[in-house]
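Please review this one.

:::
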Amino acid sequence: MSRERLLGLRNAIDRLLELPASSLAVLLALLTPSPGSKLNGAGPPAPSSPKAKPKAAKPTAKRGSRPGSIKPTPAESRAAEDEVLAQMRLNPGMGALRLAKLMNLKPNTVSDRMRRLGKRGLIERAADGKTWRIVEDASARPSRPARTPALSTSISPT
C-alpha cells in the first residue's frame, strides 16, 4: 500500500472517531455482520430451514430429453414435417443446413425431420448422398410405413 493511501485511510479513521457516539453505534451496527451471514461469500453454508419448501406442480405434458423442452404432439410433428416438405418443393436440391437457415431452425431439427420423412417414404437421398429429393409418387404411398410381421421361428423337437 502506498504512503498516500495509508494517509488517506488514517484521515478517514480520524474523521470517524470525531463522530458522536450515537452515530458510531449506528455505523457499527451497519458494518457488523449478522449471525449466520457469510463474509464476502466465504464460510460454511447457511443452515437450511426446517420448514419444507412447497413442491412445484408437475407439468402434464411429456418432457423431452432436454430440460425445459416439451415434446410436440404427433399433429405438431406432422405439421412441421409438412413445412419441411413445402420448403423442399420450393427449393429443390437444397440440403438440410440451408433449409435450416431458410426456416430459421437448428440444422439437427431439420435433419431429424427429413430422416422421418425418409422413413415415411416421402423423400429419399439424392445420388450425391448429401441432399434429399421428394419422391415423385409420394401421394400413392402410405403416410406411415407398413409394419412387417415379426418372423417366428419355432424349433420342433425331432
Q: What stands out?
A: The CA atoms of residues 119 and 145 lie 7 Å apart. The mean pLDDT is 75. DSSP finds five helices and two strands in the chain. Residues 1-29 form one domain.
